[in-house]
Amino acid sequence: MRVVLQRVSEAKVSVNQKVIGEINTGLLLLVGIAADDEPADVDWLCKKICNMRIFNDQDGKMNLSLLDVQGDLLSISQFTLHASTKKGNRPSFIYAAKPEFAEKMYLQFNENLAKLLGKKIQQGQFGADMKVSLLNDGPVTLIIDSKDKV
């Protein structure tokens, strides 16, 4: 699994011009599921995201986690994170999971995050054409890949 994590002051996602998920201070997650991902990838990423110290403390240092600041989460599925761009100019998505498997993993990911945070996770609509807007705070943007955990 690969996640682009952005610290935001606000973010929202719309489908057909209707807002379906919206947060204030917290994290926007763009979530890509690979064909070879497993439940252990979900567990590791969820713990990593909730405990990543990327929010400022009283001294302005990135020393607080999402749990510490009781921030919100907006999770968006994005298969294009697993694009291969090595050959030619048209991306290949052979490493991205098939939709049935990816949706199951994405929903499990969101469930695990909700349990760890003790609150509802805002999310996009799997497979839909979504419009995502955000106000990146910092800016702080990180890429976390569960295959890089070792």
Model description:
The protein has helices at 39-51, 66-69, 99-117, and strands at 2-15, 18-23, 26-32, 55-56, 62-64, 72-77, 122-123, 130-145. It is α/β, with parallel strands linked by helices. It has one domain (2-148): D-tyrosyl-trna(Tyr) Deacylase, Chain: A. Strands 1, 2, 3, 6, 7 and 8 form a six-stranded mixed sheet that branches. A two-stranded antiparallel ribbon has the order 4-5. A hairpin with a 5-residue loop joins strand 4 (55-56) and strand 5. Helix 1 packs parallel to helix 3 (99-117). The protein starts with a strand and ends in a 5-residue tail after the last strand.
CATH class: Alpha Beta
Structural class: alpha/beta
Helix percentage: 10-25%
Number of helices: 3
Low-confidence stretches: none
Number of strands: 8
The termini sit apart by 14 Å
Report the order of strands and helices: EEEHEEHEHEE
Characteristic key phrases:
six-stranded mixed sheet, D-tyrosyl-trna(Tyr) Deacylase, Chain: A, alpha/beta, 3 helices, 150 residues, two-stranded antiparallel ribbon
In short:
Helix content is 24%, strand content 37%. The protein is built from 3 helices and 8 strands. The chain is an alpha/beta fold and 150 residues long.
Helix and strand arrangement:
Layout: E1 2-15, E2 18-23, E3 26-32, H1 39-51, E4 55-56, E5 62-64, H2 66-69, E6 72-77, H3 99-117, E7 122-123, E8 130-145
Parallel strand pairs: 3-6, 6-7
Antiparallel strand pairs: 1-2, 1-3, 1-8, 4-5
